[in-house]
Amino acid sequence: MSVVAPPITARDAEREPAGLLTRLHEWVVTVDHKRLGVMYVVAGLAFFLIAGLEAGVIRWQLAIAGNTVVSPQVFNRLFTVHGTTMVFLVGIPIVFGFANYLVPLMIGAQDLAFPRLNAFGFWVFLFGALLLYFSFLGGDGLYGAGSAPDVGWFAYAPLTGRAFSPGNSTDYWNLSILVTGFGTVATSINLVATILTRRCRGMSLGRMPLYVWMMLVVSGMTIMALPPLTAAQIMLLLDRFLGAHFFDTQAGGSAVMWQHFFWFFGHPEVYILMVPGFAMISEIIPVFSRKVIFGYPMVVAASLAIGFLSMTVWAHHMFAVGMGAPLNSAFAASTMLIAIPTGIKIFNWVATMYGGRIRFATPMLFACAFLFQFLCAGLTGIILSVVPFNWQLTDSYFVVAHFHFVLVGSLIFTIFGAIYYWFPKVTGRLLSERLGRWHFWLFVVGFNLTFVPMHWAGMLGMPRRIYTYPADRGWDLWNLIASLGVPFQALAVLVFVVNVVISLRRGAPAGNDPWDAWTLEWATASPPPPYNFETVPVAASRRPLWDLKHPDDPDGPHE
Known about the structure:
The protein has helices spanning about 10-30, 35-60, 70-105, 115-135, 170-195, 210-240, 255-290, 295-310, 325-335, 340-355, 360-385, 385-395, 395-425, 435-460, 475-505, 545-550. It is mainly alpha-helical. The protein has a single domain (about 30-550), classed as Cytochrome c oxidase-like, subunit I domain (Cytochrome C Oxidase, Chain A), CATH 1.20.210. Helix 5 (about 170-195) runs antiparallel to helix 6, helix 6 (about 210-240) packs antiparallel against helix 7 (about 255-290) and helix 14 packs antiparallel against helix 15 (about 475-505).
């Protein structure tokens, strides 16, 4: 017998928009850590697309010598907003969005310790992020003499003084980062409280997933590193509006003091972004290698060491400002020292893969690319820790290549891998493996085409933050190759977006545990219910889900 659906009446049609508005209202007022985590990640990916467009225009301008696609002023605004967006509005919300979603599930909790504080943190972040882009509306915008910030994402004094930045551009930048910082610190405090007080029965610190351990370290680093930046921004506001002269050298202030305050945040920030990437990889590699992580205690110890040492290396950004040989030597030594715990992690990941039954699904492909590219980033970082070499390459495109290998070649690759890995848990559907491989290879080719040549351009003397260059410097070929990599990256991101849209509509059902994993987030439904678990789980080992699935095999996957 066929069943015919009743016709839609006018009254039914009127109800549908109300249903949509109701669902939207539920997301706006939610305090559910899972929804807030999704909102963080979606906001970060949206800003990633915007920052990518800005970077595309920058590379278009630099593709050939003497190009005039944009003016010098517009170029300054582009790289300022691009850098600020990538660091503060892409990296931070995405890594803390994953933590919002995953940490309570991984420790068997029903929510974060302070759900309303969690919602406050997200909306404060979003308001601060929008403040940065409101600057384009505050005057003639990007292409005129308006208010878009143009002093670099580091905002060095005295460029930020009224004499050199008389409009509102610096104020928009300053208030944006100031406000987003409040949200980030609130989320960090929430994560620390949750991890220390809301773990399920049996989950001691020694049984926590490595992801949770590393987010505990990252949250502590954030609580220590962000307040000094906030203090510096308040001092900058006092300089600009009340004549306080903290950074005004002509009135007895110190421009170098701003650099100390900023980089005391700025270099731990690199690890605030990368340690969550390490955490994601530390969950992906064991599952797709069918081996438990090699040397769990050493990975935890290395994470704690990175958290401590990251607070001691900030002034390696300042070797050229004249701190003197003793300070230069001290910061060079600490920069070299932090490579040790980082190297330990790389050996742990490789040892985990060695002898494993590796399955090269899309998450694992991104993890493998991360290993190679982060190794390159670490080696160039050690090179830059050598003070005489740093003097030669400071403010050159070698440095640009180095930190993009860290923040794009490492962090963005881990984020993509994590999205492919945890997308089934969030949506109940799998992303397409075929499109995932297209995404991966296009992004690998595009990334390396863009950023490998920058090392050579930098060693040939090309300074960063220049909007054009003469044709007789030997930089033409390297810049052209770098710019040709951008379409590959753009196409890769387009494939990713298409993959997400298609999979949300008609992706293959994932089930609760598509990867045969062993952490607790896979022990509940996909997507999880609002209360996370029907019964509070109990952890008897570091692989609690494996214990439930295979009670006769307590050792789990082979070492």
